[in-house]
Design brief:
2 helices; alpha+beta; globular; 42% helix; two-stranded antiparallel ribbon; 67 residues
């Protein structure tokens, strides 16, 4: 469980988002910043469909791959 949030072990493909996943992640972050919550929710749902689980924390959004 040392990869829970994919931030502890840099380098492997499992610890990075694909370009498509990163674009959706960035889109969600921008939508949240602009308080466009429906758009942010849609991006989150698309990420979840790709197997990416998001967790919003006081220090920012973390992600991990669904197991």
């Amino acid at each position: 469980m040392d990869r829970v949030f994919a931030v502890l072990l840099p380098g492997g493909a499992a610890e990075r988002l694909s370009p498509e996943e990163q674009a959706l992640f960035d889109e969600r972050q921008e939508a949240r910043r602009r308080r466009e919550f429906a758009r942010a929710d849609a991006a989150r749902a698309r990420l979840e469909a790709l197997g990416i689980v998001l967790e919003d924390t006081p220090k920012g959004t973390r992600w991990r791959r669904r197991q």
